[in-house]
Amino acid sequence: MKNIGIFENNGKPEAIKWIDYSLGILRSYGSECAVRPELVNLLDKFNRSYVKSIPHEEFEKFADVVISYGGDGTMLSAARIMLNSVIPIMGINVGKLGFLAEFSVNQLDKSLNDLMKGNYRVVDRTVIESDFGEEKIFALNDFVIEKKDSSRMITLDGYVNTHYIGSLRADGLIITTPTGSTAYSLSCGGPIITPATEVICITPISPHSLTLRPLVIPDSSEVALVVHSPTGDASLVADGQIRKIVKNGDTVRIRKSDAKVKLIKPLESSYFDLIRAKLLWAVNVVDSEKNPVEGKIFE
Predict the structure, then answer these.
(1) Class assignment of domain 3-118?
(2) Is the sign of the CA dihedral 170, 171, 172, 174 positive or negative?
(3) Tens of pLDDT along the chain (299 residues)?
(4) What are the domain boundaries of the chain?
């Protein structure tokens, strides 16, 4: 692993601190590292002369791997830039939960040493896309169509492969990939979907009807949503970062993209380890080993 792109997009001191620390480890392996030009002067003086200054958009021409320093939002930004490449992304969590950026700074030495020694695995993640005029928009997590500038609900006429599924009244809808199933969709009552599952999930946001529940469909399907809003327009948001305005009567079409995102994962852990650690999934409220009184919940 010779050429490494260092990705961050906000200049936060905490991220810069760990980038400086990491550069010392990577340098010991003889790697060449690149950062965006704006970051160079924020680094330690010794590291400034070591790194190459390359815009993020040109990492594809330089890097064998990209390491993202930040939270899941930073990972989503890195994924969007590296979308058309085969370069894998490793996420170092300098944020809060860190579900996509799952490598902890508390084990940074081990994680980087494992990276340099090839002790990792690379997984492909599904991406979805939508056409907006002449522009194609991509999302690794989800697309959200939601109300704009109003507290009133919107109505979305939904179709799957031209088959009418219903007139959906809610604050909005989330169209999520398996990767995004643990993000906004989960907080709206959507299911956890393992990443290799070839499906898309349609999750309503605060629906008017109790019977309007999440719907899981094959990812070979195209979802079409016709917008009806009391204000005349609604928002289309990709991964919480790209926002477009759609007008009444517009049809938003969302489908699986041919593009993939490659993520670096620990060799010794599984997706189920991750959701237990990050989401406390299937964690028992009562630990019988620590609390010998069976069935008692300790405050």
Answers:
(1) alpha beta
(2) negative
(3) 689 999 997 778 999 999 999 999 999 999 999 999 999 999 999 999 999 999 999 999 999 999 999 999 999 999 999 998 899 999 999 977 788 999 999 999 999 999 999 999 999 999 999 999 889 999 999 999 999 988 999 999 999 999 999 999 999 999 999 999 999 999 999 999 999 999 999 999 999 888 999 999 999 999 999 999 999 999 999 999 999 999 999 999 999 999 999 999 999 889 999 999 899 998 876 554 554 444 443 33
(4) 3-118, 128-258
Distances (CA, A) of 273 to 78, 102, 231, 279, 280: 24, 11, 45, 10, 10
Which residues are CB-contacts of 135 (< 8 A; sequence separation ≥ 6)? none
CATH 2.60.200.30 for the 128-258 domain, yes or no:
yes
On whether the CB atoms of residues 109 and 188 are closer than 8 A, the answer is: no
Cβ atoms of 297 and 145 closer than 8 Å: no
Query: Which active-site residues does the annotation give?
Result: 72
Q: Indicate the residue type of 264.
A: I
Paired tokens of 54: 């390359």
What is the rounded CA–CA span in Å between residue 31 and residue 16?
19
